[in-house]
Amino acid sequence: MSDVQKKLPLEGLRVVELGHYIAAPFATRLLADLGAEVIKVEPPEGDPVRGWGSVKDGHPVWFSVHGRNKLSVTLDLKSEDGKAKLRALCERADALVENFRPGYLERLGLGPTALHAINPNLIIARVSGYGQDGPYRDKPAFGAIGEAMGGLRHLTANPGQTDYPPPRCGVSISDDLAGMYAAMALVSACWGVKAGNHAGRVIDVDLVTSVFSLMEGMLPEYGLFGSVRQPQGAAIKTAAPTNTYPCADGKWLCIAGNSDLIFRRLMAAIGRPELATDPRMANNNLRCANVEELDQAIADWTRTRTAKEAEDVLEAAEVPCSRLYDMKDCAEDPHFQARDIVMEVQDPLIGPILHPAAPFRFDGVSARDMVRWTGPEAGAHNDHVFKELLGKTS
């Protein structure tokens, strides 16, 4: 165990990953970044996500991040040898994370009942499209379905736009959300075992519910008033001015000027101080009622400047704002670089590569130190895991 890993909070926690594609591997990536020993079990041909995205020198670029800090072993879970080795891993593990379709592990003889017979304290986190029960349990699902059924995709449209379908947010958000919830629940359940509150248990996380959990007050509003929130585009219906405005260079600037004090600074900065003293704009509720006029005044100003020029003016006036960053903006931003949010690491398979930092910090451990190694080749740790950890000779 490295000195860095000993400083991380999950040092000593052993997690077996039966993950493919995104949700379960995202959960275990978070756990691995936190110091857990994650053993990623892949089929002999490797996790299918290794075939996604760009490739350098025959190696998938995304997997450098997706598989970082994990030990990779390969097993054929349909073979008796593969099943035996998985049972041996689970016997020595604190937790298992999987995202097969419900019932698949049971058909292999590796369901919770079988695994708890081997290790009564094992925490089993199961991630699926619709959950382990219910009428949709056996339906196939990917991340886009979680967005659609969980209520998010309905909200990503522009108001009144019917010519184009509401767009996805650009990343596999429902997989990532389910992964985060699975990681949080797993750590909580492991704490329960350590505290003696319970033995091993099963965690049920699904894509649809993970997205649905973000729907703020929409469900109680519907239950009480029958109201259904509709797409609002880039604006926030209950705060003004808060929107995204066009700039002279074709880029966009997000501005949040809805508090009374910030609103006055914003109006002065764009040369419209009379609006700051207009009785119709005296508070947020009144500004929401006159938001079209406000948005037009701000857009008239932003259209005369590039996004960076407008951002500089508003930042000088202490108005919250940001250009809509693309990945080039993120990678080159001095704040991202100073905090190692974007950092160059050495991948032995690919060479120098940019990695995003883990989204949490701990005193005594730098962001760079948390990347102990990059995503390995499939089966890179077979000898270490099966011979050293399990003591098997074949």
From TrEMBL:
Its Gene Ontology molecular function terms?
A: transferase activity
Record's Gene3D superfamilies?
Crotonobetainyl-coa:carnitine coa-transferase, domain 1, formyl-coa transferase, domain 3
- Please name the InterPro entries in this protein's record: CoA-transferase_III, CoA-Trfase_fam_III, CoA-Trfase_III_dom3_sf, CoA-Trfase_III_dom_1_sf
The keyword rRNA-binding appears for this protein: no
Could you tell me the keywords of this UniProt record? Transferase
Q: Tell me what this protein is called.
A: CoA transferase
